[in-house]
UniProtKB/TrEMBL annotation:
InterPro entries: Methyltransf_25, SAM-dependent_MTases_sf. It holds the Pfam family Methyltransf_25. Residues 48-144 form the Methyltransferase domain. This is Methyltransferase domain-containing protein.
Length: 231
């Protein structure tokens, strides 16, 4: 049986292949996030990166912004050990916490201006998502931003429909072998609960945000980026 460290390394290597090939459009998503931070934040903002993993995209995204403090949250200590090196060039203090992102937000103390979560909020059930977004709303100041990058169903499409659309992109991922692709599919079956765009918008507005904007739809139409804020 492989050790946990071996399994972690294998999973990370597979995901890195996906990032390097830009199969999930990391470059476009984090380029968009960079632009939002440049346009809508003030110098010294506190950036909270939920489910940050090893944080390479966030580190690059924050370059040239006025970030004053970075806090990364992830449940994987091995990922956070790598993130220490990844984030070492940031022009601000950073803190890494090994914690479940829901627990972290539920027990948050201290200032925060921007909360970002990418491809992780969909692990929660609908009522859990709603509670989470409401808690985020209550934490953010008037000028704060909540940005999410999440799997999104078409209107009228169910969870299985979204998963079938994911399976249909298999020919577009040639750098990934069949075993590696199957691991993504198994993860979706076990952990992913995508919502429609209307549902993502609705939970933001119901939580108390004045605006819920869809900023980007991935070219494969599997995920979208949303911004929640006050007027």
């Amino acid at each position: 049986m492989k050790s946990d460290q071996d399994l972690f390394a294998k999973g990370l290597a597979t995901y890195q292949k996906v990032i390097d090939a830009n199969y999930m459009y990391h470059r476009e998503v984090y380029g968009l996030l960079h632009g939002v931070l440049l346009e809508e934040t003030t110098d010294g903002f506190v950036f909270v990166d939920l489910a940050c993993g090893t944080a390479p995209a966030s580190a690059t995204t924050l370059e040239g912004t006025g970030v004053g403090r970075y806090v990364g949250i992830d449940i994987s200590q091995p990922s956070l050990e790598i993130a220490k090196q990844t984030l070492s060039a940031l022009p601000c203090p950073f803190e890494l916490r090994c914690q479940d992102f829901v627990e972290a937000i539920n027990n948050w103390t201290g200032p925060v201006d921007v909360i970002w979560i990418g491809q992780s909020l969909h692990h929660l059930q609908l009522n859990e998502k709603r509670d989470f977004v409401r808690t985020v709303h209550n934490l953010l100041p008037r000028h704060g931003l909540f940005l999410i990058w999440e799997t999104t169903c078409f209107e009228g499409e169910d969870r299985e429909g979204w998963m079938e659309r994911f399976r249909q992109i298999r020919p577009q991922w040639p750098a990934i072998n069949d075993e590696e692709f199957a691991s993504f599919d198994s993860h979706h079956l076990a952990s992913d609960y995508p919502e429609t765009s209307a549902t993502w918008h609705g939970m933001g507005l119901d939580a108390g945000f004045d605006r819920a904007d869809e900023l980007m739809t991935a070219p494969n139409q599997l995920a979208r980026v949303y911004r929640f804020r006050h007027m």
